[in-house]
Design brief:
The chain is built from 14 helices and eight strands. By secondary structure, the protein is of the alpha/beta class. Helix 10 crosses helix 11.
């Protein structure tokens, strides 16, 4: 059953009427084909107009939709012969970060990202995609392996942020994230990152320092969550909508600010309505980026990546 967001209630009502009419036709043999087509056209028009004018807060809700494709969906669809690698060789295994080697369109690659989980059991197992220090140290290990074996690195970003627990802080959360940034900036292999859902705080950028940063149309990417920002500025999460606007966290805002390189179009109604189509869009963009980066020398990759992040934020809205 399709799950609707709060702002989609008018669309949900129309879809409910269509379902009722279809049920009536099946049970009574009534011909209501014309009425169903009329309502479907109305529903699609409403869906199109709604998603063409989403606010930053509404995009935040779409980015967090539980039916949106997650990392494992992308791995299953895009990476052949995927061999997961576990552990950070220092403390333990963190299932919030999933990574390993595989083949992307026949090209050997290293791939990693955050996995939020799709049901309660898997969400708990993956800690809702919020990594601890060992998760980021595993990411460091994968980065170094990618460079050692000359493998392009693909990173999928989808996290509310790094895990804020006491144990994580005691084991060096900030240092682990900072080390990810340091290693990423010096990698001598192509690196492409894709924000596929929620890109939250340092937990996101730890995996998103790349030659090309892609972002799905209704994803978000910010220094803090709208709720966290509202709690700091207004002492109340009730101002989350205002915070979302102020944070400039949408893909369109971030492309204008040159924080990301490209916005990838999603299916009408968001990636959760047609995961296959959304994954295909990411697939095509990743391949195109890797094909371009393959022609660059290690020195060009490192220099270009460093310059990209040094100049970030200098461009504004014009």
């Amino acid at each position: 059953m399709r799950r609707f967001l709060d702002f989609e209630k008018p669309i949900a009502d129309l879809d409910g009427k269509i379902a009722e009419l279809r049920h009536l036709a099946e049970s009574d043999g009534v011909n209501i084909g014309e009425e169903v087509r009329r309502l479907q056209a109305k529903s699609e028009k409403l869906l199109r107009s709604t998603y063409a004018t989403l606010t930053a807060w509404q995009k935040t809700q779409v980015a967090r939709h539980q039916d949106r494709p997650h990392l494992t969906d992308y791995l299953d669809a895009l990476i052949a012969d995927f061999t997961p690698l576990a552990g950070d060789r220092l403390y333990g295994e963190d299932r919030a970060v999933v990574g390993g080697m595989g083949r992307f369109h026949g090209r050997a690659v290293m791939v990693m990202g955050q996995e939020k989980g799709s049901d309660m059991e898997s969400r708990v197992r993956h800690n809702f995609g919020m990594a601890r220090p060992e998760g980021y140290r595993k990411a460091q290990r994968l980065m170094k392996l990618a460079e050692r074996f000359a493998l392009p690195l693909i990173a999928f970003v989808d996290t509310a942020g790094a895990y804020p627990g006491i144990g994580a802080e005691e084991r060096g959360q900030a240092e682990a994230i900072a080390r990810c940034l340091d290693i990423s900036l010096s990698l001598k292999v192509p690196v492409v990152a894709a924000v596929i859902g929620e890109g939250g705080s340092g937990g996101a950028i730890a995996l998103a320092v790349a030659d090309r940063v892609l972002m799905l149309e209704h994803s978000i990417y910010s220094v803090i969550s709208p709720e966290g920002c509202a709690s700091i500025l207004w002492r109340s999460a009730k101002q989350s909508k205002e915070a979302a606007e102020a944070l400039r966290l949408t893909a369109q805002d971030l492309e204008r600010l040159r924080v990301i390189d490209e916005v990838l179009a999603e299916p009408l109604g968001g990636a959760h309505r047609s995961p296959v189509e959304a994954i295909a869009a990411v697939d095509a963009a990743l391949k195109r980026c890797l094909d371009i980066l393959a022609g660059k020398s290690p020195e060009q990759l490192v220099s270009g990546r460093r310059q990209k992040f040094l100049t970030m934020g200098k461009a504004g809205f014009g």
